[in-house]
């Protein structure tokens, strides 16, 4: 290899390294959600969850409580509301599914044989479309990533992009993402902040970790990316592309022929979970804080805004609200 080619490769590598470090610094220095605003949103979600439970909108209530538990894991009011959820929603609220992003956030419902039969062909076609994803990204970016499940990957990538395309869970829409990440096999580091909106459910991402093991229970894969996929991504200067093949969706497609829907996304047996813009904004703020606050910030937040209310149930099941007095309670 000539000296000129070696210098060219060195310049490319050096450019990637500089952009990676710069992007990571920008992401880490960016202001996290204000403590007061997060507390206001958490209280809003608690009050809203109580109303949603009364209206038997258990899916929406579960999502609201799930966000609150990430900020206040021992919140008394949230615990009481959680106990009022049906068992299936109690599990979904507190326990992550190993299928992560692949498991649909939809509400199960009882349906008869003829209804399931009517939806049989449309559901199989939609399951087929779930198998792949393709997105084109625009914005400053450079790097590559390749993976066969996120346990086996090679990644060196940085960018601040807006992308359009077809994402997992039937999401034809737009994503905005700022990221700087590296990985080899299942080990690496990442600073990622992203949001996806479109025809499917909204998805949020936030992780700031210099080194971690990529596991299915990481919030990045519970809420935003598919851990169980095969794919690749490339970005150069101002344009890039990402393509994925989703293994769990392939299994769900074939299982569907036998009326089995283990990803919970068939229209015949589920209903959508819907939030208005105000609810979405409060959810996003709390989830964003839970993703972005480091341990020190979380302690500061809980000291500044301990559990705003304690709720207890009396013998006649009426709810009493007790406002704490004196010094702020220390976080657990």
From the structure above, extract its key features.
6-stranded antiparallel β-sheet, membrane, alpha+beta, two-stranded antiparallel ribbon, transmembrane helix, transmembrane, 332 residues, globular
What is the compact description of this entry?
The chain is of the alpha+beta class and 332 residues long. It has helices at 3-29, 35-54, 58-71, 76-83, 87-94, 113-118, 120-129, 219-223, 247-256, 277-292, 295-304; strands at residues 106-108, 132-148, 153-167, 171-184, 187-198, 203-213, 229-246, 270-272, 310-313, 319-322. The strands form three sheets. A six-stranded antiparallel sheet has the order 6-5-4-3-2-7. The chain has a two-stranded antiparallel sheet with strand order 1-8.
Verbal overview:
It is a single chain. The protein is α+β, with helices and mostly antiparallel strands. The chain starts with a helix and ends in a 10-residue tail after the last strand. The C terminus is likely disordered. Keywords: Membrane, Transmembrane, Transmembrane helix.
Most strands sheet = 6 strands, antiparallel
Strand order in the largest sheet? 6-5-4-3-2-7
Element order: H for helix, E for strand:
HHHHHEHHEEEEEHEHEHHEE
Counted beta strands:
10
What is the first-to-last residue Cα distance?
59 Å
Low-confidence regions: 24-30, 310-332
Overall shape: it is globular
Helical content class: 40-55%
> Structural class from helices and strands?
alpha+beta
What is the number of helical segments per DSSP (H or I, 4+ residues)? 11
Radius of gyration: 22 Å
Please write out the topology.
Blueprint: H1 3-29, H2 35-54, H3 58-71, H4 76-83, H5 87-94, E1 106-108, H6 113-118, H7 120-129, E2 132-148, E3 153-167, E4 171-184, E5 187-198, E6 203-213, H8 219-223, E7 229-246, H9 247-256, E8 270-272, H10 277-292, H11 295-304, E9 310-313, E10 319-322
Antiparallel strand pairs: 1-8, 2-3, 2-7, 3-4, 4-5, 5-6, 9-10
Helix pairs in contact: 2-3, 2-10, 3-5, 3-10, 7-9
């Amino acid at each position: 290899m000539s000296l000129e080619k070696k210098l060219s490769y060195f310049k490319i590598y050096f450019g990637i390294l500089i952009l990676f470090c710069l992007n990571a610094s920008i992401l880490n220095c960016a202001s996290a959600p204000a403590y007061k605003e997060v507390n206001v949103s958490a209280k809003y979600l608690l009050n809203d969850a109580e109303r949603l439970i009364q209206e038997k909108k258990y899916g929406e209530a579960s999502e609201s409580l799930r966000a609150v538990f990430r900020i206040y894991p021992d919140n008394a009011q949230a615990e009481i509301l959680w106990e009022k959820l049906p068992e299936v929603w109690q599990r979904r609220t507190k326990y992550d599914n190993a299928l992560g992003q692949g498991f649909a956030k939809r509400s199960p419902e009882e349906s008869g044989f003829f209804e399931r039969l009517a939806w049989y062909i449309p559901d199989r076609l939609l399951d087929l479309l779930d198998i792949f994803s393709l997105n084109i990204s625009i914005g400053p970016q450079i790097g590559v990533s390749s993976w066969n499940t996120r346990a086996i990957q090679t990644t060196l990538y940085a960018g601040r992009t807006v992308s359009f395309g077809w994402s997992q869970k039937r999401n034809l829409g737009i994503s905005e993402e700022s990221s700087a990440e590296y990985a080899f096999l299942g080990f690496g580091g990442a600073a990622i902040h992203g949001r996806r909106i479109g025809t499917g459910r909204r998805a949020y991402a936030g992780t700031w970790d210099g080194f971690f093991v990529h596991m299915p229970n990481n919030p990045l894969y519970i809420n935003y990316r598919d851990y169980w996929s095969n794919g690749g991504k490339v970005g150069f200067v101002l344009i890039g592309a990402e393509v994925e093949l989703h293994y769990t969706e392939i299994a769900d497609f074939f299982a569907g022929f036998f009326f089995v829907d283990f990803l919970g996304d068939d229209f015949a047996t589920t209903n959508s979970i819907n939030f208005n813009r105000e609810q979405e904004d409060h959810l996003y703020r709390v989830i964003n804080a839970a993703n972005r606050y480091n341990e020190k910030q979380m302690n500061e937040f809980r000291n500044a805004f301990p559990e705003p209310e304690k709720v207890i149930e009396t013998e006649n099941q009426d709810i009493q609200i007790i406002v704490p007095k004196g010094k702020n309670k220390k976080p657990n």
